[in-house]
Amino acid sequence: MKVLIVEDNKQLNDTLKEVLEINGYLVDTAFDGEEALDYLNATEYDLIILDIMLPKIDGYQVCQLARDKGINTPILMLTAKDRLEDKVKGLDIGADDYLVKPFEIDELIARVRALIRRASTEKSNIIKIGDFVVDLNRREVKKNGTKLMITPKLFCILEQLLRNRGKVVTYETLMNKCWDINDYPTRETVRANIKLLRKILQDKDIIHNVSGVGYKIE
User: Fold this and answer.
1) What's this model's pTM, rounded to 2 decimal places?
2) Which of 7, 8, 30, 96 is the most exposed, fewest CB within 10 Å of its CB?
3) Between β-strands 146-148 and 169-170, what pairing exists: parallel, antiparallel or unpaired?
4) What is the mean pLDDT of the chain?
5) How would DSSP label each residue in 37-59?
């Protein structure tokens, strides 16, 4: 597991790096917000430990910019601020947990383990294909980091195709999975919704038609 520590206090940064490496983690370190963003643009991490009070770009901005770019890596924020409004701000912009200085190392390690464990579970329901990232838990679709507006029914169709990548999903399966029993959908209904889904995805080639049978995503 790879962790990025972003902390401008060199002594604390070095201590955290040493402790995490002893516990089996690979660690990169950054000392300001700009350096942190450079690392995030170049490398994929399993966890980010992020101080708020940083030179150049503060931790709030780093967190916001990372989320805006579609980086979903868990973020544990460190701060000397213990006011409720500071915690709420951090969580609202995308942080996953919040630890107030001074803290016990054992508590930090426990939170690191919990965040990575949770993220590992969630990752199994995040599918990346081409320019798209589909979060099956949050029921979100992003293209090049931009969230697409998609109805529950169209998401259901996309989910069925993604869960069966490489296999043909029949018209009947889509009708049974994505329509209410009282809707009485037809194959033409499915075709119309596939057409709309392709339009929303702005990619006519991602969903392949298997003539007379159904659809699939390779």
Assistant:
1) 0.59
2) 8
3) unpaired
4) 90
5) HHHHHH---SEEEEESS-SSS-H
